[in-house]
Amino acid sequence: MNPLRFGLIGCGQFGAFLARAAVATGRLQLVAATDSDAARADTLAAEHQAAACADAAALLAHPAVDVVLIATPPALHMQHAIAAARAGKPVFLEKPMAIGEHACEAINAAVREAGVNLMVGHVLRYFEPYRAIAAAYRAGKLGRALHLSIWRLEHDFLNISPWKGQRAVSGGYLYEVAAHELDWLRAMLGEPTAIQAQITRQPSSAHQLEDTVALQLMFPGGAGVHYLGGAGFPRNEHGFHLRFEHATLNSDQAFDPARVQVASSTGLTAADLGFGDADPYSIELNAWLDSLATGSPPPITGEDAAQTVALIEAAYRAAGW
Ligand SMILES: NC(=O)c1ccc[n+]([C@@H]2O[C@H](COP(=O)([O-])OP(=O)(O)OC[C@H]3O[C@@H](n4cnc5c(N)ncnc54)[C@H](O)[C@@H]3O)[C@@H](O)[C@H]2O)c1
């Protein structure tokens, strides 16, 4: 089968990475790239023998573009996703889906009207150890979820891209970072039934993000969740204590399955969780491509991802932000 030809809107750090991951599937070929920083589009296009387009409209009008990947800052997701849908192109849209529930509804309406496929890139669902833990939970190996504590604390986050510190562009820390874990929690436990939130921020900060954000969530079945995040910590820390009926799973390096410690009342071990070693971005993109090939809905639809945005908005409201 010939690879599908894709156009990429947003050739920054993640867009360039995503383009390489897409090409590595062997099922996608980059044919057009655009970025408001023309040099970035030129560089990526040259790397892939693709066309560099002046803007998103030119990319969407390019006759070789079959499907579109979007990796622009979140404030632009709505305009780019709607434009791609109206051009009749299937869309892979990076997380967070958009800023605000209305923006998500507008994207979903455009996608429905155009009858195109749209998947949102909540890749944490495919990352180990998260994928395997959710699968073990669904399979009943862990028993009921009792209390899950997750922390993702950042120190040097804003060295990456300055726009991430502007709430109007990134949406804030919950949108740009916590969206990963909040989406994973929703996918595993369902929609939360209660939420409390506290946010602190030094008024003197050079950025507009939360220094600390603490969420207390309740999920159906009585599972409690505590999430701690923020951009104002003295060092980066990313870990979890996940307490289920039959096992407690601890890690101080949340993306390293080898660091997961399991204490179980039923003899469950880390080996029983079945961690895989496949590249999560490859799994994610292949899942999207499979949905395109079969005409079935993608695994993470716009309606689904909009619920993560609704949760983020509920958290901000609960914190009075
Ligand atoms: N799934 C993941 O693991 C993951 C990781 C990092 C980032 N992301 C997401 O990817 C997206 C991009 O983040 P990033 O880290 O690459 O940021 P970035 O700043 O490195 O890249 C964003 C790019 O968009 C370009 N851009 C801005 N306005 C544009 C416009 N109007 N038209 C075309 N291009 C425009 C910028 O010039 C920049 O090159 C965000 O939604 C972010 O949340 C996802």
Automatic annotation (TrEMBL):
Q: Which residue spans traverse the membrane?
A: none
Origin species = Chitiniphilus eburneus
Taxonomic path: Bacteria, Pseudomonadati, Pseudomonadota, Betaproteobacteria, Neisseriales
Cite a single GO MF annotation. Answer: nucleotide binding
Stated name of the protein: Gfo/Idh/MocA family oxidoreductase
Which residues constitute the signal peptide according to the record? none
Gfo/Idh/MocA-like oxidoreductase N-terminal domain segment(s): 4-122
Domain named GFO/IDH/MocA-like oxidoreductase: which ranges? 130-240
Record Pfam families: GFO_IDH_MocA (PF01408), GFO_IDH_MocA_C3 (PF22725)
